[in-house]
Specification:
Layout lengths: L6 H32 L3 E4 L4 E4 L7 H10 L12 H18 L6 H26 L1 H7 L3 H10 L3 H16 L8 H9 L6 H21 L5 H27 L2
Antiparallel strand pairs: 1-2
Helix pairs in contact: 1-4, 1-10, 2-3, 4-6, 4-8, 7-9, 8-9
Length: about 250
């Protein structure tokens, strides 16, 4: 059996994966932000994360004082801070915790859910559109719109990537944590086994990817597409997380 790679499509698809890796990362964070804002929180967006604060938190005199106190120790491990700085920082943290953070609130859970929910909803929308257009694809081939839906459906790949990287990280640098990310936090906050949500979503992601690649995509282009996904996904991650992202959204 002859195996061939279409270089032209390899380049196009790789660029597509670079773009959608970036779009997927930022839109994931906006999923958190939309939920946080709907709950009345103030938010900040960064290239690979977001922060949420209760209304008025950033203007609180204790927050400002804490930032001024610790500005010279931002990149220093807490245990290496001078004792007096640690004590004063703890004092500010205790005040802020009592003033703003309600332990009985489920807001943290809802905000954690927002990111993965946006990712899987986008992926599911893309999948449903492919299913809807399946007969047209079989009859007339893939159109530009169909390729858009393919990339949207593969937002589900994020769930596979998260599980694989967290397990790989534990194998390379063991710290007792086999799972990570929002999915881990959701499992913990629901009092489930830590791998429950990560494994469920990754399994669904695998099923979606198998369906899209082996049931929707033309056979002659599958290998090229899979290879471009590996190349473009890695390139997109490195470019956004290490080069472009920190400059645009530090």
């Amino acid at each position: 059996m002859k195996i061939s790679i279409d270089i032209k499509h390899l380049i196009y698809f790789s660029l597509g994966f670079v773009l959608f890796t970036i779009v997927g990362t930022v839109s994931h964070e906006y999923g958190h932000i939309i939920v946080a804002k709907s709950l009345g929180y103030e938010t900040t967006l960064h290239y690979g994360s977001m922060n949420s604060y209760p209304k008025g938190y950033l203007e609180d005199e204790n927050v400002i004082a804490f930032k001024n106190l610790t500005k010279d120790y931002v990149s220093v491990e807490y245990d290496s801070w001078p004792k007096d700085i640690q004590e004063k920082a703890e004092e500010y943290n205790n005040i802020l915790e009592k003033r703003y953070w309600n332990e009985e609130s489920n807001d943290s859970l809802f905000i954690s859910i927002g990111g993965p929910l946006q990712t899987v909803l986008t992926g599911t929308l893309g999948l449903l559109m492919l299913v809807f257009r399946r007969k047209s694809i079989y009859k007339s081939g893939m159109k530009t719109l169909d390729w858009l839906f393919v990339f949207l459906s593969l937002f589900w790949l994020r769930e596979i990537f998260n599980l694989v990287t967290s397990i790989a990280g534990e194998l390379i640098l063991p710290n007792g944590n086999w799972f990570g990310g929002d999915e881990l936090h959701i499992s913990q906050e629901l009092n489930l086994w830590s791998g429950t949500i990560p494994i469920i979503l990754a399994t669904l992601g695998i099923l979606v990817a198998i369906y899209v690649i082996f049931k929707i995509m033309p056979k002659k282009i599958r290998l090229t597409f899979i290879l471009s996904g590996i190349i473009g996904g890695i390139m997109g991650f490195i470019l956004w997380m290490n080069i472009i992202g920190p400059r645009i959204l530090p």
